[in-house]
Amino acid sequence: MKKLIVLIAGAMLVFGCGLIPDEAAIKKLIEEDLEVVVEPGDHSVSININGVPAELPRGLDGLSVFVTKEGNDKSDPVEKGVTEDKTVTETGLNNGEKYIVAVNGEVGGQVTGYGFSRGFYPRPGGYGDYLGYDPGTHGPTNAVYFDRLSGAPTAKQDDDPDVDFYFYREGEDLYFAKRPGVTTGGVTASTQTEWLDVQDAPTSYASSAKLVKGGIYQFQTEDNYFGKIIVDSVASVTTTSKAAGDAVKVWLRYAFQTAQGVGHY
Predict the structure, then answer these.
(1) What is d(CA 205, CA 187) in angstroms, rounded to the nearest whole number?
(2) How many CB atoms lie within 10 A of CB 208?
(3) Rg for the chain (alpha carbons), in Å?
């Protein structure tokens, strides 16, 4: 049986051979103060842990990070003993399946119940830039096709039959639209406020959406693949193939779910 010693004179509590943990401070740090960003990747996830103080609350040895498939019990942590800001990466995950990231405190060599968790779906993501021209004209980077295996968007001629979506311009406004004649899928402005948050796919889509800086848009392809983009900027540019000022360029980040029919990001 462990021994409890109370040293009144020094106002110090000792439990066995260690200090009694400051449970309130541990709970507050892990569940309120830490900033943990979960970034899904292609068959992977990165967990960025920020806000770990130089001096941990009394009794907290560090943090354990778990990545488990939804419905499974926690196994061994992918990282333990975290005592400073750190990025933890786990690979070998299945795109389109739901996983849970959990971050818990370690006290006395044991994982505590203090912590938090959130779900995510591995999927490819990245960055690109594309041009949008006046309606009725064509350009070699005026449309995009998402590779079904890698998730990467490839710039296409907008009249290419393989195009998933194309860009077109009305004045200084740039639109993202599904290919004419396609009756399923489409694009819609998202209600998300955080780009990396997991969100279910909407139940209906429009044929096009105006792209604005900072906007997040969800889309569904004709053959039932799902993805989303966030617009970093939209600007008029001069091109070598068109007259000055007649093109609009969009810089965006993308996430594309390579698991067919999985409406999550």
Answers:
(1) 5
(2) 17
(3) 24
pTM of the model: 0.76
**Is residue 156 helix, strand or coil?**
strand
Tokens at residue 150, please? 């890698």
pLDDT band at 131 (very low <50, low <70, confident <90, very high): low
Task: Say which residues have a Cβ less than 8 Å from residue 100's Cβ, sequence separation at least 6.
Answer: 66, 67, 68, 69, 70, 117, 118, 119
Decide if 44 contacts 91 (C-beta within 8 A).
Answer: yes
Tokens of 123: 């999927």
Tell me how far apart the alpha carbons of residues 98 and 264 are, in angstroms, rounded to a whole number. Answer: 9
Task: Inform me whether the pLDDT recorded for 239 exceeds 50.
Answer: yes
Give residue-wise pLDDT tens across range 210-232: 999 999 999 999 999 999 999 99
The SS3 assignment for 227 reads strand
